[in-house]
Design a protein that fits this description.
Elements lengths: L1 H10 L6 E3 L6 H4 L10 H4 L2 H7 L15 H16 L3 E3 L1 E8 L15 E7 L4 E6 L2 E3 L27 E2 L8 H7 L3 E5 L3 H15 L7 E5 L18 H15 L3 E4 L4 E6 L5 E5 L4 E5 L1 E4 L28 H4 L24 E3 L13 H15 L3 H5 L2 E4 L26 E4 L22
Parallel strand pairs: 1-2, 6-15, 7-14, 8-9, 8-14, 9-10
Antiparallel strand pairs: 3-4, 4-5, 11-12, 12-13, 16-17
The structure holds flavin-adenine dinucleotide (FAD).
Flavin-adenine dinucleotide binds next to strand 1, helix 2, strand 3 and helix 10.
Length: 445
């Protein structure tokens, strides 16, 4: 979202500086390069960015096809950064944001002071930059949730780090494949990433070099109609197919679902294999690997001097939180929102993109492509344009997944279902009520 924000600011004649901690644009996306998006190219490109890219001879990939994370970064995010040129600085990690000469307490002339942004470059050199506004689009990829059922790392989780990962493994990588082949792997979480991991492990179990591969799916809740997402009724077919693939993995015996299991500790047995211990004392023995996919949290540490207005539960902007609460909403029922819902007591700073959703697992890039024009118009002083927010989002539609027919693999082409038009606000009928805060939701990556 950072380069998209910069593209819009340039459109408004405002000069942006984009600071990316990673070595390339889309550095976080590159870390899940092996995963397919469940959005098509048409849903993964910001129209304003497309306008900026067109004069360079860049052409929009086939809109109905699905990019992998790697393709999205290489064929879209990087070319966009290239167009922005020196405005984009990679290897520049933001370590602090504040008001010049004013810490969080000080009121005097606060709003008249520019922001000071502390940056550490990859060569270790520290810098201070000054800005009249800050758009934090730093995502949540770097701060995944832990295995612990209470939201804390389970006892022994860190000590077991050599057998615990917080990413969907790339089983096309021979070294990674060898780590899981023929092994018993616990998968913790119930969002799109957990579905993907279960499907990948089931494929490995069916492969010649994967005999004996087994997954144990750890769920804090029970299995219900909504556990596997929208299935074939999902208006993002590739997202629906992920849930169906997970269901097939369970139905075909490649994954055992263990429900109501809140991991409290990860221990090692005499052979060095892992034992997951639940709060109710249940013990899951003989585990070789653990894949933790329990969602993400925002890193707020470098914003400690800023007066943010965040919701206690979601750590999302207070106005936005009720609209995205996974206990009430799926990603398809979030109504359009912009600068007003994303504002904070501190003027001139906004969290956008994945980070604006805090711990809510329902962010879609299309939402970010609506947030950004509103915020940049507001920063340009064009309130009328800033208030014009429209969002077209495909709904997941929880439906009973068809009984154990082999799930259709997400094809690289799909007929995009007719998006549901939502204009602010409509009374949204709650989707399937989720008992507990989702440990990942329909769009939880
Ligand atoms: C596996 C996965 C699959 C997804 N699939 C889809 C999908 O199919 N469709 C969809 O609509 N959405 C999807 N999403 C959700 C979302 O659209 C993406 O995560 C998207 O990349 C979010 O964009 P962002 O700019 O908010 O954050 P990111 O893409 O995470 O970008 C944040 C950037 O900020 C940088 N950064 C972090 N901290 C700092 C710092 N302190 N200083 C400087 N730079 C920093 C990071 O290196 C990163 O490059 C998916 C997410 C994941 C994780």
């Amino acid at each position: 979202m950072s380069n998209g924000s910069a593209a819009h600011l340039v459109d408004h004649g405002i000069e942006p500086a984009v600071l990316e901690a990673g070595p390339t644009a889309g550095a976080a996306v590159q870390e899940w390069a092996h995963l397919l998006l469940f959005s098509t190219w048409g849903e993964a490109i910001d129209p304003a960015a497309e306008k900026l890219l067109a004069p360079t001879g860049w052409t929009t990939p086939d809109e109905g096809t699905y990019p992998s994370g790697g393709e999205w970064a290489e064929k879209y995010l990087q070319p966009l950064a290239d167009v922005l040129g020196e405005r984009v600085r990679t290897g520049a990690r933001v370590t602090g944001v504040s008001r010049v000469g004013r810490d969080r307490i000080v009121d005097a002339d606060r709003e008249a002071q520019p922001f000071v942004v502390h940056v550490t470059r990859t060569d270790g050199v520290e810098e201070r930059l000054f800005a009249r506004a800050v758009i934090d689009a730093s995502g949540t990829w770097a701060t995944p949730g832990p295995a612990g059922g209470s939201g804390l790392p389970a006892l022994g989780e860190r000590a077991a780090a050599d057998h615990v990962t917080y990413r969907v493994p790339d089983l096309k990588d021979p070294a990674v494949r060898a780590r899981y082949a023929g092994r018993r792997t616990a998968v913790i979480g119930s969002g799109a990433s957990a579905f993907t991991a279960l499907a990948y492990l089931a494929d490995l179990a069916k492969a010649d070099d994967g005999t004996g591969t087994k997954a144990v799916w750890i769920l804090r809740r029970g299995l219900s109609g909504s556990t596997f997402g929208g299935g074939s009724a999902d208006q993002l077919p590739a997202r629906g197919a992920l849930g169906l693939a997970a269901k097939a993995a369970v139905d075909d015996g490649h994954a055992d679902a263990v429900t109501g299991f809140r991991t409290e500790a990860i221990e090692r047995d005499a052979d060095g294999r892992l034992v997951l211990v639940a709060e109710d004392g249940r013990r899951l023995e003989n585990v070789d690997e653990v894949i933790v996919l329990t969602g993400f949290r925002p890193d707020l540490s470098f914003l400690s001097e800023i007066r943010l207005g965040l919701d206690d539960r979601l750590q999302a902007p207070a106005e936005l939180a009720p609209l995205i609460d996974p206990n009430q909403h799926s990603c398809g029922t979030v109504y359009p929102h912009g600068h007003r819902e994303l504002a904070h007591p501190e003027q001139g700073i906004y969290l956008v993109g994945m980070k604006s959703y805090g711990r809510a697992p329902t962010f879609l890039a299309m939402t970010g492509y609506e947030q950004v024009p509103s915020i940049t118009a507001a920063l340009a002083g064009d309130t009328e344009a800033a208030d014009r927010v429209e969002l077209t989002l495909p709904k997941p539609e929880y439906a009973e997944a068809p009984a154990s027919s082999t799930p259709p693999k997400p094809t690289r082409t799909a007929e995009a279902a007719a998006p549901v038009q939502l204009t602010a606000p409509t009374a949204t009928a709650p989707d399937a009520k989720v008992e507990e805060s989702a440990e990942g939701g329909c769009c939880d990556a």
